[in-house]
Every structure is written in C-alpha cells, then in structure tokens.
Description:
The complex is a heterodimer. Chain A folds into two domains: about 5-30 and about 65-245; about 260-275 and about 285-415, Fumarate Reductase Iron-sulfur Protein, Chain B, domain 2, CATH 1.10.1060. Helices cover about 60% and strands about 0% of the residues of chain A. Chain A has helices at about 5-30, 45-55, 65-95, 105-130, 145-180, 195-200, 205-230, 235-245, 260-270, 295-305, 310-315, 315-320, 325-345, 365-370, 375-380, 385-400, 405-420. In chain A, helix 1 crosses helix 13 (about 325-345) and helix 3 (about 65-95) crosses helix 4 (about 105-130). The longest helix of chain A is centred in the middle third of the chain and has 33 residues, at about 145-180. The radius of gyration of chain A is 28 Å and the shape is elongated. The model of chain A has no long low-confidence stretch (mean pLDDT about 95). By secondary structure, chain B is α/β, with parallel strands linked by helices. Chain B folds into two domains: about 10-130, Rossmann fold (3-Layer(aba) Sandwich), CATH 3.40.50.1860; about 135-260, Rossmann fold, CATH 3.40.50. Chain B has eleven helices and eight strands. Chain B has helices spanning about 10-15, 25-30, 35-50, 65-70, 75-90, 100-110, 120-130, 165-170, 205-215, 230-240, 250-260, and strands spanning about 20-25, 55, 95, 120, 145-150, 175, 220-225, 250. In chain B, helix 3 packs across helix 11 (about 250-260), helix 7 packs across helix 8 and helix 9 crosses helix 10 (about 230-240). Classes of the chains: A mainly alpha, B alpha/beta. At the A-B interface, helix 9, helix 12, helix 16 and helix 17 of A face helix 2, helix 3, helix 4, helix 5 and helix 6 of B.
Amino acid sequence: xxxxxxxxxxxxxxxxxxxxxxxxxxxxxxxxxxxxxxxxxxxxxxxxxxxxxxxxxxxxxxxxxxxxxxxxxxxxxxxxxxxxxxxxxxxxxxxxxxxxxxxxxxxxxxxxxxxxxxxxxxxxxxxxxxxxxxxxxxxxxxxxxxxxxxxxxxxxxxxxxxxxxxxxxxxxxxxxxxxxxxxxxxxxxxxxxxxxxxxxxxxxxxxxxxxxxxxxxxxxxxxxxxxxxxxxxxxxxxxxxxxxxxxxxxxxxxxxxxxxxxxxxxxxxxxxxxxxxxxxxxxxxxxxxxxxxxxxxxxxxxxxxxxxxxxxxxxxxxxxxxxxxxxxxxxxxxxxxxxxxxxxxxxxxxxxxxxxxxxxxxxxxxxxxxxxxxxxxxxxxxxxxxxxxxxxxxxxxxxxxxxxxxxxxxxxxxxxxxxxxxxxxxxxxxxxxxxxx
Amino acid sequence: xxxxxxxxxxxxxxxxxxxxxxxxxxxxxxxxxxxxxxxxxxxxxxxxxxxxxxxxxxxxxxxxxxxxxxxxxxxxxxxxxxxxxxxxxxxxxxxxxxxxxxxxxxxxxxxxxxxxxxxxxxxxxxxxxxxxxxxxxxxxxxxxxxxxxxxxxxxxxxxxxxxxxxxxxxxxxxxxxxxxxxxxxxxxxxxxxxxxxxxxxxxxxxxxxxxxxxxxxxxxxxxxxxxxxxxxxxxxxxxxxxxxxxxxxxxxxxxxxxxxxx
Lengths: 437, 262
C-alpha cells in the first residue's frame, strides 16, 4: 500500500508521455503531407531569428500591453517548470522537496517561483478580462467562433488554477513546517503564499496535510492533462513556435516563389528545340487546391497559429470590411489538415472525402480581396506566412480552373497581346518622351 | 525648357555606347497620364545630373508582376523570360525604376530565372545623385510646407527601403510629418496584388479612403509617394474627400525636380 501513490504517479506519467507522443506524431505526419521545401540553408541566421523572435519575443512587444503580459506568462511558464522536475522526482520516489539540499539557493528558487506564479496569475486574469469583458475586437471577429474563444478561455483558466494550486500548496506546506510535522522539513521561502497563511492557520494538521497533498496532485495532474490538451489547442504554439520561426522565410517579403514546373514548360514554349527534363512522378498541380499541395511549412504555420489576430488587425482588406482574414486562412489550413489526418486514420491513406481547402474552407471572395501587401506576415509574432497560402490558392484558381475574376482575365489578355496590363500597343511605349510636360 | 532627349538601348548600342544605368519605365510610367509626368520628370533629373541613361522603349514589356500576384505564373514567366532575353542581350548591369512593383520583380524574382541586375528604386538613385552633388536642391521652395510620406508596400515592407525616400524629403527643407501608421506598419493603398485592375470585394470602405484618412489626419500640404499606383489611389482618395484644393499628391521625383528648379 505504501507504494501506491508512487505507482499511480508513474502510471500517470507514462500515460501522459505515450498519449502526447501519439498526438504529436500525428501532427508531424499531417505537416509532412505538404510538399517539399528546402529550408536548411543559412543555419546561423535561422538560429539568430529563432533566438530573437521565438525566444526573445521581439515581435510580441510591438503591441506593448499584450506583449509584456505575454512575456510574464511565458517567463513564468518556463521558469516555474524547473519546479516540475522536483515534483517528478518527489512523485516517483516519495521524497518531499528533494532539491532542498541546495540550501539558500533553493529558498531563492521557491521564492522566485512564487513571485512569478502570482505575476502569471494576474496576467492571465487581465487576459481573461481583455477577452471577455473589454471584448477587444480582434478576439471577437467572424472566425472566432465558440471553440476558438473557449479554447483561449480554457487555457487561461487552467493557468490560473495551476498557479493557485501551487501557491496554496506552499501556504499549507509552510504552516506544516512551522508545526514541525514529520516529513515537512523546513525549506523554501514563501514571499507570496505567506499572505494566505492566516486563512488556513486555524485548520487541523490533518486537513492541512490533505490540502497540501490535494494541491500537489492537482498541480501535477493538471500539468499532465494540459500537456495532452496542447495538441488539440492553439496553445500548441508553445512548442511549434520554435521550429516554425527557425524554418521561416528569410527572403525579402516581396519575393514570391517561382514555380519550377512552369519554368520548364515556358522554356519549352520559347525554345521548341529544348529537351524536356525527365518527368519525375505524377504531374504536379499548379498552385494548391488542398493542404497536400501546400508546402509543409504552410501546414506547420497552421498548427503554430495561436489565433492572436494581429495579422487580421493590420490587413487592409479585413479593416475595410472584406471577408478576407489572414488568421482565418491559417486556422482553415490547420482545421483542414486535422480533417485530412482523421480521414487517413479512419479510412487509409488514399481516402477522398470530396472536400478541398479551396471553396470548402476558403472562398474565392476571400482570396481575391488580398492586396499582397505583406502586413500580415510582418505582424505575425511566430513568423507565419498567410500570404504564401493565398498565392498558392490563387494559382490553382487561375492556372487549373481558369476562375480569375473577369477584369483580371482582361488584364492577363492585355499582357499576353500587347505586353502591358492595359490595352496600349508596345509601339506607343516611348510616346511619353515626345509629349509636352 | 530644353527638349527632352531619351536615348533607347538600341540607339546607344548602335553607336557602340553603354549607358550607366537602364531606366525601366514600366507600364504605368509609359501609359498612365499621371505616371507619364513622373517618368518625364525622372528623365529630366537624370539628364540634369548628367547620368548616361537609356530606356528600352518599344522593347520593354510588363515585368509580369500583376500576373504573378494574381496567380498566373505562366504569364509571369513568359514575360520574365522575354524581358530577360532583351536585358541580357544588351548586357544590362544596372536598372533604375520609378515603380516599386517592377523594382521588386526585377530585383527579387528575375535572378532565379537568369536575370541578374543591380536594381534601384528611383528614390535610392536620387539620394545618391544628391549626396554626390550631381544634383542639388535649392532651399526655400518647400519652406513651411508640411509633407507626409506614404510607404509603398513593395518598397517598404517587401524590400526594406524606408530611408531613401525620407532622406529626400529631409533634403527639401520642409516640415516632415509621419503618419500614425508608417514604415513596416504602413497601410497599403489598396492597389497591390493586382487589385489595380479590378473592383474591390464587398466591404464597408475602400482601402484607399482608409489610407487617405491616415494621411489627412496629419493635415499635410503634400502627400509624397514613390509608386505610380499609390499615387493614383491617394489622388482618388483626396478627391473623394474634396481636398484636392489643399492637398497635393506628388511623386518624390517631382518634389526633387521642383526644388532643383527643373
């Protein structure tokens, strides 16, 4: 009986690890459904970008209020997790505060965790108020339906509960330490939880032990549950933000990819004597109709998106009431990737559900509203590129379906016929030099 | 004013000469009445600075930018290969253009297809010419005038050219005022991504009106731009607000020309 808690703990830990590995590997598989893209160049600059943008949150602070609050939660999350190491050891080996041999440094650690915990708690409460009371516009736009809103609230409430459990655990622990209860050796500094001590001081030792144990288990089981909530939540960004920024586009934002398959065809058209390059595999769709036609990086963008809506807040089309929302583009990519992934799980690799990313998720009206201004890509704190998806879907509509808006077809025809988007002959191109000022 | 002499690459090559720089005029600069004025002004400035330049003239064709942004990669690459053949045949090394869209396409998308040139936006070249003393601006012309600058997306965010245009305005001895949204945060004029050729999608406002309001908020005398499309969109916006009497939209080349007494 004595080992029951340890066994239970070990089982929970193992289940958490296995479940998470399973979910993460499915997301990895879904990301790799995308087309190849080589982003292995320039590792030095990539590490630097990751250090600045992901670790250093350089783009988050461009909106200072949300940015600074986010840094508090982020720093709290990372640092307080040192405590989890101790919890894991204590849980597995029935020790109590196993790291206290560090002495004064241990007190410093616990004290810092407490200060961070209260900061995180307050920041999360402010975030909840911003979303639910102040109703900041970007959290209530069209694509922020009930699940994305609940997801955000669930994450924030979970963090509030986890931090509360941590502080209450310390409060009861410190009283037990004062009462010299066996097992509760004197350790730690409690700059925050000491304020809660008067609330529980009158409780019996047994009740306090129960409270301490309850909070301890609540905290760690909460973390285990939260880890496995991540893969179905926007909160997965805490993991993917790092590789996503590492593999982000390092080119000038104005540079769009040139389609290699088109280059081959155009070369053949311009020089009929040229030999076509050997075809490798099935002919590639021009542009993208579904997630398999996007690059793996675009799908990773979708899974990394944390739905903050900074992209849509700066989008000229979105600000002027058009349907286009770059955030929705990212969410649609992820949701479609999830759907395709579930189909593969249920029906095998080649199952076709008759749906596509274009039309079923993202409409032509959204796509044609984009000015390709790159405000969204510039604003994204995790270096997502919604514009890459928009352009691939436009390419599909134009090159595979011939479904460009009529005015754009006229523009194409003009360029084909007279080398300008308007109907002026090339022979008139130098007329400006002869006209009067 | 003396007659504008604009040599073509064909003429220059026939004489066995090589220009210092090729002036890429672009479709807007060749055909749009407002943009043609900017083209002429730029040609005059180049002449005044004694820059040996040439244009392709009737051998120039659309870079393919609007086709590419609209998703027509075939048409884009057809244009690109045709232009690259011409440019490479003339052994062009340096290009200047008054259009940020041509600038971006030539600079970023042509190299992979075999077209490698040093490409400059005209504000960058004008900055160099002024710094080197090949052009000069007389003070006083814009004294007390309030000028704001609208960042073209394909110059600013797309290519990080923020300083050259602002430096030109600083040289004009005017009062420069920045819009609330500027540089990387600048709002698009609404014409990019092939929007220039189509009606906007359904919404509650036109983008150029939103941007014009940004500009009018700082009550400028002049809105400066470095892009023919932005110029059109903001001129329309100012008209829409019935402010064309008080607020003028000018290309930076025109402002430099005015200050150089051209």
